[in-house]
Write a structure and sequence with these properties.
single chain; alpha+beta; BirA Bifunctional Protein, domain 2; 9-stranded mixed beta sheet; 3-stranded antiparallel beta sheet; 9 helices; 14 strands; 36% helix
């Protein structure tokens, strides 16, 4: 019979990873404290859990003292909305090590409950966050004592020269696709144009595939495995249709001020030059919920308080979310996420 994760023999096997995780978390706090960031704590219980179309939340009901249901609530998938309200309130540099919750997730790299590091800088650009990432990964590696970041046989040295590649350049380099040519209308990129380019490059195309589906299929098959090999990769300037909460680039409205950090083929962080226009953000939220409803039959409420905060006036800012558990895996050489979790949510499988 499988032993539970609290069994001393099973815990003993994970303890070296967990001890290095603890040193890594101390180093993360030290990194931000040295740079005059405030550590904040925001509620995990929110009206809106986050509105990314493909993320699923956990829901509950908020009850009054007499047991009456007051409203439906969700455990947040990210502390993003709440932290941006603090930017509006006047906090200039903030970070948080937040417990976050995402339903329907569980794999070698995913857990339904995990730790997300988010930090925000008022008066900064997304390029400032790239430098933050460099210093943070170097600090994490020093704290754990490993010579390189590692995932299986792949390694990346954060002290080496990092790779910087635009999304359009990556599609051209590794898939032979002119991505921007499939975007004659950035608000409604052409699925037939991308379908033809994907088929020509040998990527499967199914009837009914929309542009985003094709984008991710090409990305996962041809591009992601090449990212973060030997040194971390910053993949920047996503198509505006995938902007999420980021603003358009001032010099090219087809692109958004968004980057992702990859290490050993693993997505580690997602960053934005933040959108501060409440009306434009509302339109994106509605479009995202329309897509979620079409794909999964559910939609989540919009956080009207967050949009009110944007309308009140959020300063020009940049923000980023980084998976601490994945960073711990990379910095310790752990094979699965439960190796760096003190107690997995569902006990996690025992491997013999």
């Amino acid at each position: 019979m499988p032993r539970p994760p609290w069994h001393p023999d099973r815990f003993r096997a994970r303890l070296p990873y967990l001890e290095r995780r603890a040193r890594l978390v101390r180093a993360v706090r030290g990194f931000f404290d040295e740079r005059d960031f405030l550590e904040v704590e925001t509620p995990a219980l929110q009206v809106s859990p986050g509105l990314e179309p493909h993320l699923m939340s956990f829901a509950t009901e908020l009850e009054a003292a007499d047991g009456r249901v007051q409203r439906r609530m969700h455990l947040h998938t990210s502390p993003e909305f709440a932290m941006k309200k603090l930017l509006v309130a006047g906090a200039p540099r903030i970070y948080q090590l937040a417990r976050v919750f995402r339903n329907r997730e569980g794999s070698r790299l995913h857990s339904p409950e995990f730790t997300l590091l988010e930090w925000y800088r008022a008066g900064a650009s997304y390029r400032d966050l790239m430098e933050d990432c460099r210093g943070l990964l170097q600090a994490a590696l020093r704290a754990t004592g490993n010579p390189v970041l590692r995932m299986g046989d792949a390694v990346a040295d954060p002290f080496a020269c990092w790779t910087m590649v635009g999304v359009a350049e990556a599609f051209d380099t590794w898939a032979g696709i002119d991505l921007l040519a499939t975007m004659p209308d950035p608000a409604a990129p052409s699925a037939p144009l991308l379908a033809a380019a994907a088929a020509a490059s040998g990527v499967r195309v199914d009837a009914g595939d929309d542009w985003e589906t094709l984008f991710f299929r090409v990305f996962l098959e041809r591009i992601e495995p090449n990212l973060g090999q030997g040194a971390p990769t910053i993949l920047y300037d996503y198509p505006i249709s995938m902007a999420a909460l980021s603003r358009p680039r001032a010099d090219d409205s087809r692109l958004a001020e968004r980057f992702e950090l990859y290490v050993c083929g693993v997505e580690l962080a997602n960053a934005f030059g933040e959108l501060t226009d409440a009306a434009r953000q509302r339109a994106r939220f509605v479009a995202d919920m329309d897509r979620k409803e079409a794909l999964y039959g559910v939609r989540y409420p919009i956080d009207e308080d967050f949009l009110a905060a944007l309308a009140h006036g959020m300063p020009e800012s940049a923000g980023i979310a980084l998976g601490i558990d994945r960073l711990a895996m990379l910095a310790t050489g752990a094979e699965r996420i439960e190796d760096v979790l003190w107690l997995p949510v569902d006990g996690g499988p025992e491997r013999r």
